[in-house]
Amino acid sequence: MNGPLIVFYVFATVLVLSALRVITARNPVHAALFLVLCFFTAAAIWLLAYAEFLAITLILVYVGAVMVLFLFVVMMLDINFDKMREGFWKFLPVAGGVGFVMAFEMVLVLWTKVDMASMPARAAVPAGSNTKALGAVLYTDYLLPFELAAVVLLVAIVAAIALTLRRRKETKYQDPHDQLSANAGNRLKIVKDVK
Prior knowledge:
Layout: H1 3-24, H2 28-48, H3 52-76, H4 81-84, H5 92-111, H6 130-138, H7 143-164, H8 176-180
């Protein structure tokens, strides 16, 4: 075994173990942090496949934005997770069946023999980096889906802010209009001591 293959197996093992911890962790914050570890190890595997742009995009978009947003929502909403877990075991047969079908499909993919001679010839790799080629395709052929994804992310951000924005009873608020309309006459009130 050569060095890159050993590194791949190390990252793949960490990825699988952290993915298992994502679904078995009781605390949702711990599950989110294990998911961050999954994203980092998946990015390392992308780097081994010489897909630098996809690796850095995975870290920037998912770890830097989506997971931070998810952690804010989990920590600010005060969700009673014990109440949500009450009916967990009644869905176990359905979840087990879906998991078995997915595992069976993965085994079929791994055991299927592919005849490389019958595959069509690969197109010539364009000059430059894969980032330049991906950008050229993204902003020409897939411009509309790219813009729609940006709008969906904007709506998700606004929805997350709307969900977490709430007024607390113990917090004191000031009206800016009252502050700006104040004058010297109503700021200070002198009370004479009457004895």
